[in-house]
Amino acid sequence: MKMHLVRVHQSKEKIERKDQLAWKIAEIASNSFNINDDVLEMAINRIIDNASVAIASINRSPVATARSMAIAHPRQNGATVFGMPNNQKFNCEWAAWANGTAVRELDFHDTFLAADYSHPGDNIPPILAVAQQKNKSGKELLRGILTGYEVHVNLVKSICLHEFKKDHIAHLCPAQAAGIGALLGLPIDTIYQAVQQAVHVSFTTRQSRKGEISSWKAYAPAHAGKLAIEALDRAMRGEGSPSPIYEGEDSVIAYMLSGKEGRYEVPLPEAGEEQLAILETYTKEHSAEYQSQALIDLARKLKAKVTNFEEIQSIQIYTSHHTHYVIGTGANDPQKMDPNASRETLDHSIMYIFAVALQDGNWHHIHSYSPERAKREDTIRLWHKISTIEDPQWTQWYHEQDPNKKRFGGRVEIKFKNGDKLVDELGVADAHPNGARPFKRKNYINKFDTLSDGIILKSERDRFISLAENLIDLTDEQVKQLNVQVEMKNLINNKPNSQGIF
């Protein structure tokens, strides 16, 4: 890996293309690299993981709405949409929209946390959709996915968006563009223009994840995917983009991030170096914001030691800056304590999540968020006794550069009315690569089976898993079948309608 200094340049201070971050990203997308067995294994895991959470959310409102929009854009040689028959194809831009929303809806797929937040699995839907429409093989698809992960993870390591209240799709969109460029084998200059356009159009505020969180949280990564596909299409037709998008005098760094004196060091692989970033990502065992994963596991453990929840006086969670200010009481969001809050808000409330996990000893992607569950009086009483505190040590662990030293959980102190205290901590989730039960292929397939149970036929399950596990050898025709179909009787919004504009 090589560190690249990225800073703002005044217009009179010319910066050559080869020295710009967008160009260096384009070089990664243009370089050839070897693919080792561990990387291939993880890419397959991620495809299975994405499909499992997409099918589990297939009839939820945002996903059904996105699907209805997509199927209004049929295309003979297009891409498939989760749930729909494989012989029905749609414009890849809209397939990416529908599939990206399905993957993101339950907040249940992979994650990478560093200077900023990310769900690198959001790269897969647009890259796969373009691969299907452009007749690409499994090996070409794999190259695109690995490039998307590589760019995304390394931007997240080095440039914090949250500090300036920008949503994390601003790193996702250029990664998606780079991944699609790698998939298609485009020239450096074309990818460079597309990456810059993707950066330019994808900066939005974090209000999408603040206060009363709406269904837009599920749509945002899919929107980035649409923007990335459009950026590539324009660049392939010879059109340019705002340049230099990162380093310019009026660029995103100068006016949306750290300002004209801002400086970042971005790690990127050198020419020919293996792209291994996907191995640094980790999936979720529980359908909740990643920083709650270890705390859910800890709550399940602590349940056995609490005999009477009414005897609890208070619960304090000592954790990282990000956890405290994003999903904890440091966010100062009253909605995070509201039993009438949306599912999207509750999955960003560690106070609610910890209360339910402590009482139930488990976590369920549907039942744990039901209105009935959120409004239980004993749960509300316990929920409102929970607060978070930033602990500098946990913040330091959160930002560790060594992935083996990173910790995302916290220390929990439960104080009882009789003066007793119960204290325990957990650094990483059980399913994390460094956790008690690291996820392997069998765990991903079990997650798929659990979430798709009763929704798809066993024959469809076997067909899809077989294709996914043979990713690198898939022909272009087999890539077109890399989709999970649901029986039409079990799928709402499976035909065009006139509810909207399309």
UniProtKB/TrEMBL annotation:
Q: Which residues cross the membrane?
A: none
MmgE/PrpD N-terminal domain location: 20-261
Instruction: Provide the leader sequence positions.
Output: none
* A single GO molecular function term of this UniProt record: lyase activity
Determine the domain of life of the protein's source.
Bacteria
| Residue intervals of the MmgE/PrpD C-terminal domain | 286-471
What's this protein's family per the entry?
Belongs to the PrpD family.
* PANTHER family listed in its UniProt record: 2-METHYLCITRATE DEHYDRATASE (PTHR16943:SF8), 2-METHYLCITRATE DEHYDRATASE-RELATED (PTHR16943)
Q: What protein name is recorded for this chain?
A: MmgE/PrpD family protein
Task: List the source organism.
Answer: Fluviispira multicolorata
